[in-house]
Design brief:
By secondary structure, this protein is mostly helical. The protein has 3 domains: 121 residues, Fumarase C, Chain B, domain 1 (Orthogonal Bundle); 248 residues, Fumarase C, Chain A, domain 2 (Up-down Bundle), CATH 1.20.200.10; 103 residues, Ribonucleotide Reductase Protein R1, domain 1, CATH 1.10.40. It binds arginine.
Length: 482
């Protein structure tokens, strides 16, 4: 046997045809060992064992309430499932590849433990609605965990933004120095992204949180079931309204993965900036050593491995989104075995986002800001050129003329190898001679307009980078988080 994905080494191989196989009666020959491995899912879907047991308990209780099974059967089922839950938690459950998936493994063990009551559990149910229920329960937990981690990440971002509400650094467009902003304002841009991410997960949770059970294989069941009570017991907001859709819908998984892909893209963009800022050529920040590694050959190196891996892992989540979209695009109604392929991308997506958010929340407070380098970078690139143009406009010059006048001033400063304020009042006037009405509009107050602080203070509307506005944005964000 090779050790490919389909030959998990850690599960016992079965021998011949299993007479207990849930669907064996109709078949005259056993599946080959390879087909068994190819079609089995237990080596990954056993992650949903707890959800499978919860769903089964709720289903059994409903069967008993509706008089479909006896109280004695229910007691046996509950006792058996509780024991199975313990066995799994203790790592003592003997998972069998022969039993295909998490559902059949648990059901078979239940029957071994409690006899006929175990065989009655599957009344009015199919693995099709069962698996859909398990995934939704599992995903709901994952969403709740992600929402908690997003909140923590946002709190850490807000704390750092508050510390640096006054710290200037160059804002870039096209990676060229554009205008001064504060580091706090820059961080708040990432907070906005994270708050939209949280909204998306909350929204996607509503559509995830619906009960498929009762759809059975695809058409519903002839037993007098009560779906609403099962939904209520499992904390679902309602039932899936159409039995065919209930067993075949995986929209919620795609929506979740899309939300995760966007979250990862935001974290990847931030990672790219951390990497850039940490480069000795930029030197805006330093990352705590515990998020970096050295080089095996170059003793001087401190590499930002964690942000680089966040950037890299974004690729796998984007890939899972495409995998799930592709999984669904050709499926006729209702359930098809294709759907079994939904789980690994979903699990890996959730694992990746959860670990990334965890590590990010820890990494933010480990950012050491080098404000001196940020400020020094503002003396290159004529960051207050727009402010000079705005100054001229406020003195009555049309904006396009002001733009041209400042472009001439920048050219002069560039030739002299200095920044705009260093041209002085006379130098500025001289440089803009070619634009009628520009130079004479400059007064002594232009010096203040050309300072970094002046540029920051001037942008004091909502959403602007003035420190007071950054602090107000932080306060609003904290209020929303509470
Ligand atoms: N392991 C299966 C899955 O993950 C469970 C449903 C199987 N249903 C069936 N009709 N074969 O989708």
């Amino acid at each position: 046997m090779s050790d490919s994905l389909h030959t998990p080494q850690h599960l016992p191989e079965g021998g011949s045809a299993d007479p207990d196989k849930a669907w064996s009666g109709r078949f005259s020959e056993p599946v080959s060992e390879l087909v068994k491995r190819y079609t089995a899912s237990v080596y990954f879907d056993r992650r949903m064992a707890a959800q499978d047991i919860r769903g089964s308990v709720a289903h059994a209780r409903m069967l008993e309430r509706q008089g479909i099974i006896s109280a004695a059967d229910l007691a046996d089922i509950e006792r058996g499932l509780a024991q199975i839950g313990d066995e799994i938690a203790r790592g003592e459950f003997a998972w069998q590849l022969d039993d295909e998936d998490v559902h059949l493994n648990i059901e078979k063990r239940l029957t071994a433990l409690v006899g006929d009551a175990g065989k009655r559990l599957h009344t009015g149910r199919s693995r099709n609605d069962q698996v859909a229920t398990d995934i939704r329960l599992w995903l709901r937990d994952a969403i709740d965990q992600i929402l908690e981690l997003l909140t923590e990440f946002r709190c850490r971002l807000l704390d750092l933004a508050e510390q640096h509400a006054d710290t200037p650094l160059p804002g870039f467009t096209h990676l060229q120095v554009a205008q001064p902003v504060t580091f706090g304002h820059h961080l708040m841009a990432y907070h906005e992204m994270a708050s939209r991410d949280a909204e998306r997960f909350v929204d996607c949770r509503h559509r995830t949180n619906r009960l498929p059970l009762g759809a059975a294989a695809l058409a519903g069941t002839s037993f007098p079931i009560d779906r609403e009570s099962v939904a209520a017991e499992l904390g679902f907001e309602g039932v899936c309204e159409n039995s065919l859709d209930a067993v075949s819908d995986r929209d919620f998984a795609i929506e979740f993965t899309a939300a995760c892909a966007l979250t990862m893209i935001h974290l990847s963009r931030m990672s790219e900036e951390l990497i850039l800022w940490m480069s000795p050529r930029v030197g805006f920040i330093d990352l705590a050593d515990r998020f970096c590694t050295g080089s095996s050959i170059m003793p001087q190196k401190k590499n930002p491995d964690v942000p680089e891996l966040v950037r890299g892992k974004t690729g796998r989540v984007n890939g899972h989104l495409v995998a799930l979209l592709t999984l669904m695009k050709g499926q006729p109604l209702a359930y098809n075995k294709d759907n079994q392929e939904d789980k690994e991308p979903l699990y890996d997506t959730a694992d990746t986002v959860i670990d990334t958010l965890r590590i990010y929340a820890d990494m933010i407070p480990g950012i050491r800001v080098r404000a001196d380098n940020m400020r020094a970078a503002l003396t290159q690139g004529f960051a207050t050129a727009t402010d000079l143009a705005d100054y001229l406009v406020k003195k009555g010059l049309p904006f396009r003329d002001a733009h041209e006048a400042v472009a001439l001033a920048v050219r002069t400063a560039e030739q002299r190898g200095c920044d705009l304020p260093e041209l002085g009042l006379e130098g500025l006037r001289e440089s803009m001679q070619a634009v009628a009405g520009a130079g004479e509009r400059l007064g002594d107050d232009v010096a203040a307009a050309l300072t970094v602080e002046g540029a920051l203070q001037a942008r004091r509307h909502i959403g602007g980078t003035a420190p007071e506005q950054v602090r107000a944005a932080i306060a609003r964000a904290r209020a929303r988080l509470r």
